[in-house]
Fold this protein.
Amino acid sequence: MSLRTLVVSIALAGVASVAPWVAVAANEVSGTATKASSSSSFTPGEVKRIDAGQGKLTLKHGPIENLGMPGMTMVFRADASVLAQLQVGDQIRFKADKVDGTIQITELQK
């Protein structure tokens, strides 16, 4: 492999790894959700912790396409009506989006 080919390959790999986070940053700057988020697919997840008093839900989840996030375990904001129907260990499918500066569950299927 020539030096030029190596440099081009490294540059392209760097651009590809940053691209999903550019979309998240752009969404944060605008402060609004994109139209793509409303039509995004559901993400599978497992309920790890419920904090009804704080309105928080900890999920181990797959990639969230509309937010450009890889699979991980993280905390989401959720309405009390959503939290009331869940138990630790539940397997769910959900949609999440950035709302008022926090990532919130916008739809949930049990």
Q: What stands out?
A: Strands lie at 43-51, 56-61, 72-77, 91-99, 102-109. The longest strand covers residues 43-51.
